[in-house]
Specification:
Strand content: under 5%
Largest sheet: 2 strands, antiparallel
Low-confidence stretches: 1-11, 13-65
Number of strands: 2
Strand order of the largest sheet: 1-2
Distance between the termini: 45 Å
Mean pLDDT: 78
Structural class: mainly alpha
């Protein structure tokens, strides 16, 4: 099984050096038997390792440490670099691309172009077997331009406090999911993965249909972006983002456990950044609807 983002499907960690993303997450019984039911034919070098430690609490074998293997510090550092790039370019675009009446069309055009470029970079990275730091940071830079203009527009036309509320809401979702995952209140299983993926596909399909109706029919399409339905779908979008955060945390945990190469921490940063961008945009849209109705 591979982790995926609600916006872009991406590859899991590399199968090289014995790690294959969610494929390397055996259940207790399979670990005891030396076989991984999720591996889809990919051997796990630690399944028969006599030195692997068995985690009796959660049933996950603990792989021995290797030099050059990914650590949580690597993930935190790369994620900070990627998110820092998003924040920096967002701040610059907010300051340099005004959204007043005279410049609104130009700024929106640049923002849409940046979003398309970010999408292309993200798709290229998604289909690459190895992590490319240059691609990931380029994606973060262009994504930041898009977010900066959109956030500036919301702050100008909806309310100056809406953006800060969205940022705080995103941070709260991240912290809440992290705590729930560490406390094992959220258990990422194949069933959980399948449910989230099915829900995300349905959500995205509805959003595409709504976009087509709005383009060809005018207005808000089917009404999924405003009013009561907009609020409902905003909440659903945030919940989906929270679920994908849990999948990202599981992928990071498995990568560290099974000794994924250090450079693969860029993939973790890439996935976490995309998920946080998704949550922020859904939070911003939801708050814009709520504050716009005041």
């Amino acid at each position: 099984m591979r982790s995926s983002n609600p916006v872009f499907s991406r590859r899991g960690f590399s199968r090289d050096n014995g790690y294959a993303g969610f494929n390397a997450a055996p259940q207790a019984g399979a670990a005891a038997a030396g076989a991984n039911p999720y591996a889809q034919g990919t051997a796990n070098p630690y399944a028969t390792n006599p030195y692997a430690q068995q985690d009796t609490q959660y049933g996950a074998p603990q792989a021995p440490a290797r030099s050059g293997a990914m650590t949580i510090d690597d993930v935190v550092t790369r994620t900070a670099m990627t998110l820092g790039t998003v924040v920096l370019t967002a701040a610059l675009s907010w300051a340099l691309l005004p959204v007043d009446e005279a410049n609104l069309g130009k700024s929106y055009g640049i923002a849409i172009g940046a979003a398309l470029v970010a999408f292309v970079f993200a798709m290229i990275q998604s289909f690459k077997r190895k992590a490319s730091p240059a691609l990931i940071l380029a994606y973060a830079a262009f994504e930041g331009v898009f977010l900066g203009v959109i956030s500036s527009a919301v702050s100008t036309y909806i309310g100056p406090g809406t953006v800060m509320q969205a940022v705080m809401g995103t941070m709260c979702v991240f912290a809440g999911v992290l705590i729930a995952y560490k406390m094992r209140w959220i258990r990422v299983t194949r069933r959980f993965y399948g449910f989230v993926m099915a829900a995300a596909m349905g959500f995205m399909l509805l959003m595409v249909v709504n976009l087509l109706f709005s383009v060809f029919g005018g207005g808000d399409g089917l009404g999924f972006r405003s009013g009561g339905l907009g609020i409902l779908f905003g909440v659903i979008g945030i919940i989906l983002g929270a679920c994908f955060l849990a999948l990202d945390f599981k992928q990071v945990e498995d990568g560290i456990t099974y000794g994924a190469p250090r450079e693969e921490s860029w993939l973790a940063a890439f996935g976490l950044t995309m998920t946080l961008v998704w949550i922020y945009l859904e939070m911003l849209r939801l708050l814009s609807i709520l504050n716009g109705d005041d």
